[in-house]
Amino acid sequence: MSELQLNGVRKSYGGFEVIKGVDLDIKSGEFVVFVGPSGCGKSTLLRMIAGLEEITFGDLTIDDVLMNDVDPSKRGIAMVFQSYALYPHMTVRENMGFALRFAGVPKAEIQKRVMEAANILELGPLLDRKPKQLSGGQRQRVAIGRAIVRHPKIFLFDEPLSNLDAELRVHMRIEIARLHKQLAATIVYVTHDQVEAMTLADKIVVMRGGVVEQVGSPLDLYDDPANLFVAGFIGSPKMNFLKGMIETGEGGTFARLPDYADARIPISLREATPGTPVTVGIRPEHFKEHGTASLDLTIDMLEHLGGETFAYARHGNGELVIIETKNGRGLKSSDHITARFDPGCALVFDESGKRLR
Amino acid sequence: MRNNPANIASAVLTYGFVGLMAFLSIFPFIWMAFGATNSSIDIIKGRLLPGEALATNIANFFTLVNVPLVFWNSAKVTIFATVLTLAVSSLAGYGFEIFRSRHRERLYRAMLLTLMIPFAALMIPLFIMMGKMDLINTHIAVVLPTIGSAFIVFYFRQCTKAFPSELRDAAKVDGLKEWQIFLYIYVPVMRSTYAAAFIIVFMTAWNNYLWPLIVLQSNETKTITLVISSLASAYYPDYGVVMVGTILATLPTLTVFFFMQRQFVQGMLGSVK
Ligand SMILES: Nc1ncnc2c1ncn2[C@@H]1O[C@H](COP(=O)(O)OP(=O)(O)O)[C@@H](O)[C@H]1O
Ligand SMILES: [Mg+2]
């Protein structure tokens, strides 16, 4: 069942368009993550769903009801803000019950729901404190609690973890994933951090410059990016991009890497014109000893993480290639290496950034 | 190193300067306090020691002045002016900062420009206006022109810049209308800003002299500042009695400041934390 739908949604500030036509279907119970570089319009899109920004063009429906002009509090959504936005003059209990009080929910019911949320989030001992007396992680949990008590159809999160330190961020990430299971809630979550997106999402929406670049499951986007931007954005360390050229020869059509010793990536001729320049993408972990293609490189720098090693290696033409390897403990800077990879794993993009298959 | 001559000299200069300033601001209070205990003659002679005329001065003050009425007038004017100024000017400052419109900045600058017009230039037109509205010799006439205070609007707009916009968003999602956001979120969150503004407005209203002097003409409506000044400008002013009056007139502002100085300082530093 489709719960939330965006049809040709646009947003302009003055004459400046920041959301340039977004179509999106979000199913009930889905965890959807909007990800993209800062300024690409993620928050704006989320705030349009929340009703905090007007929709300039297009339709927004929730459960098949047109929501464009419906008050934020009547959309069946709850939102968790980046700064938590807790009311500083109210206790945790009052913060969580505030919306319900305004909706005219009876006192006993408010009390019940606040306790319920407090139990889920282990906020019991903090209920009578003011936000000022809480740590960052606790404030975050209160902000989530404030959303939970309203029993919304859809939870909206705008970069909820970006104000936390690294350790707490990982902890809260797991917490949010657990909540999603426990509440069977529909969640729309905004982040600029692709690791958060990969670990949390059922469905990732990659955005750039007000446009949706690709929608898909985390692994789909990782294995099968539609364009250069998505390929570069998803995955850490980043995918390597090398200059290549389309060539036809014995055995079919290839993307060749002219600067490199021996590397031919087979692609179908349907999409490629021989002689045109392309970009070839190889993920760092796709370098394997038994690969049939190879690059001759010199190691610039090494990062030993214990379990694996990242080698930052340079080719004679100056291009930097990152290689991930399990047995790189013996490597040294300025070693000459032949990095092998399976050409079947490499991706080819045309000059406009579109993927060639 | 701490005892080298340059440091000592600079310490002497600093303390000397601070001491002089402290003396200049405290001296009138001391004079007022001692004056209240001396006879008028002694004060004119420049006696700066406690005297024995305190009881006489107080008794004279209470016979010359209808104290309850005068204080009641002052209190009425001050309370209305303070409450209305805070309500109107904080709403305006909040509105100027939060709501966008094409003419916002132009309007705002025009409002700030009014700060440069001296009150003396406005007195006569204001008086004529009040006359046309038949408000001369009423307390409404004293309060009305002070309500829209450009300075307090400015102060609230500056402080509102620190009011997080996500609080407004959270409140909207929680179902609050604009006026409810103002009343239930903004006002309590900004309470130290209100406290600081309260002190300023309260003191200004209580000490207001020139405008009440013009619009209040009968003894039934006069405020404490007017009464004291008329005592001081009598043909044979009794300075001991005047000093008793000034002490009584200073008490309310002193009390307010004493109880609210912590909030005042907080409000001046910025109220949202
Ligand atoms: N109120 C506004 N007025 C004008 N431009 C805005 C406003 N809000 C956001 N923008 C612009 O819209 C673009 C998208 O912003 P935003 O949605 O906050 O990006 P993100 O959350 O992806 O970092 C940015 O270029 C930003 O400058
Ligand atoms: Mg954002």
From TrEMBL, chain A:
Keyword Transport: yes
Domain of life, source organism: Bacteria
Localization of this protein: Cell inner membrane
ABC transporter domain: residues covered: 4-234
MF terms in GO: ABC-type maltose transporter activity; ATP binding; ATP hydrolysis activity
Claim: Nucleotide-binding is one of the keywords in the record: yes
GO cellular component, one term: ATP-binding cassette (ABC) transporter complex, substrate-binding subunit-containing
UniProt xrefs under Gene3D superfamilies: 2.40.50.100, Nucleic acid-binding proteins, P-loop containing nucleotide triphosphate hydrolases
Signal peptide annotation: none
CDD domains cross-referenced by the UniProt entry: ABC_MalK_N
One Pfam family linked to the record: OB_MalK
Subcellular location, principal: membrane
Membrane topology: Peripheral membrane protein
Family as reported in the entry's similarity comment: Belongs to the ABC transporter superfamily.
The protein, known as: sn-glycerol-3-phosphate ABC transporter ATP-binding protein UgpC
Species the sequence originates in: Rhizobium fredii (Sinorhizobium fredii)
The organism's taxonomic lineage, starting at the top: Bacteria, Pseudomonadati, Pseudomonadota, Alphaproteobacteria, Hyphomicrobiales
TrEMBL record, chain B:
Location in the cell: Cell membrane
Family membership: Belongs to the binding-protein-dependent transport system permease family.
CDD domains registered for this protein in UniProt: TM_PBP2
Domain ABC transmembrane type-1: 71-260
Protein name, entry field: ABC transporter permease subunit
Pfam families (UniProt xref): BPD_transp_1
Keywords (A to Z) from UniProt: Cell membrane, Membrane, Transmembrane, Transmembrane helix, Transport
CC per GO annotation: plasma membrane
Stored SUPFAM superfamilies: MetI-like (SSF161098)
Bilayer-crossing regions: 12-34, 78-99, 111-130, 136-156, 181-206, 239-260
GO BP terms, alphabetized: transmembrane transport
Membrane topology: Multi-pass membrane protein
Source organism of this protein record: Rhizobium fredii
PROSITE patterns membership: ABC_TM1 (PS50928)
